[in-house]
């Protein structure tokens, strides 16, 4: 990867965003309320919040797959009004084409954009090497493990040179050891490519280990509780999980999240009419 590709673009602002879901039948559900935070260019910013609080909803709004009810999202000062090639989302579910080899999967996007096949394949091959899959580039997705599939997906996202990478719980569902290894791998990749990243997780350890800054969310109606800078040096390794800085940040994050997680746990089921009382 040449220096020219190291970018300091991708500054994202989520400004006073609100999102209400619902229908005439179910009634309104205020999921996000006055949510504001920034993803500084070149940073790895992690959104951390209890399950169901609206993290994926925020990703959808930043990706432009959905629009806020209130507020605004900008990327490098330009309002997000729909999906664009400047943002790539990597989801938990694999989106690799099962009928293509890993090399073809990663080279697919550039070839579609008109890049000559040899050039696209050479770049795809270099990226697969970066994610530790060089020896597997002729395999099909079904012939590799779940963790390898996620790495191939990250390679496929990086080849598109997005300004902003959005990763929505990409390591969810992997076993504990694979997840830890994926985090280390991902950090190496981030240090190398420096693509501005918004990473979503509900795992505190994963969040602190990866983040330059943590954006901690409340439970619904969800807003930003606080933003915590993570001053752990890079490159990082798992030894840092025992450092005092790490311990202090974890304590702070746990304090903030515990009560919100309880709210999520205790939430009563929403009745079919969304809890709206009839007028007798
Ligand atoms: N398209 C939609 N229509 C109606 N409600 C929605 C829609 N998308 C999300 N919601 C509601 O928004 C809330 C937040 O969902 P979201 O998936 O964003 O949370 P999350 O924090 O990503 O959850 P998890 O950590 O469990 O993946 C939920 O109550 C969900 O039912």
TrEMBL record:
Taxonomic source organism: Tabrizicola soli
Q: Which residues form the ABC transporter domain?
A: 12-244
Keywords, in A-Z order: ATP-binding, Nucleotide-binding, Transport
- Keyword Nucleotide-binding attached: yes
Q: Which family does it belong to?
A: Belongs to the ABC transporter superfamily.
Alphabetical list of Gene3D superfamilies matching this protein: P-loop containing nucleotide triphosphate hydrolases
Protein name per UniProt = ABC transporter ATP-binding protein
Q: Which Pfam families match?
A: ABC_tran
This protein's source sits in the domain of life called Bacteria
Which GO molecular function entries does the Swiss-Prot or TrEMBL record give?
ATP binding
């Amino acid at each position: 990867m040449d220096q020219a590709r190291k970018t300091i673009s991708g500054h994202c602002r989520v400004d006073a965003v609100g999102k209400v879901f619902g229908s005439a039948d179910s009634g309104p559900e205020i999921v996000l309320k006055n949510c504001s935070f920034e993803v500084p260019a070149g940073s790895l910013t992690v959104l951390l919040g209890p399950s169901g609080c609206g993290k994926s909803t925020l990703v959808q709004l930043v990706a432009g797959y959905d629009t806020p009810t209130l507020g605004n999202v900008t990327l490098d000062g330009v309002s997000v009004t729909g999906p664009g090639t400047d943002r790539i989302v990597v989801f938990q579910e694999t989106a690799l084409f099962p009928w293509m080899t890993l090399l073809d999967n990663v080279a697919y996007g550039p070839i579609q954009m008109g890049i000559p096949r040899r050039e696209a394949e050479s770049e795809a091959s270099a990226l697969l090497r970066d994610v530790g899959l060089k020896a597997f580039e002729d395999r099909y997705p079904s012939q590799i493990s779940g963790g390898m599939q996620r790495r191939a997906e990250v390679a496929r996202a990086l080849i598109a040179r997005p300004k902003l990478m959005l990763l929505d719980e990409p390591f969810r569902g992997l076993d504990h050891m694979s997840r830890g290894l994926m985090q280390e791998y991902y950090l190496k990749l981030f240090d190398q490519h420096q693509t501005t990243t918004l990473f979503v997780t509900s795992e505190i350890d994963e969040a602190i280990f990866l983040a330059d800054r943590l954006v901690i969310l409340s439970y619904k109606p969800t807003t930003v509780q606080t933003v915590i800078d993570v001053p752990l040096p890079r490159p990082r390794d798992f030894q840092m999980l025992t450092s005092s800085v790490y311990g202090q940040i974890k304590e702070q994050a746990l304090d903030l999240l515990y009560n919100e997680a309880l709210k999520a746990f205790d939430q009563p089921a929403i009745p079919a009419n969304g809890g709206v009382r009839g007028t007798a």
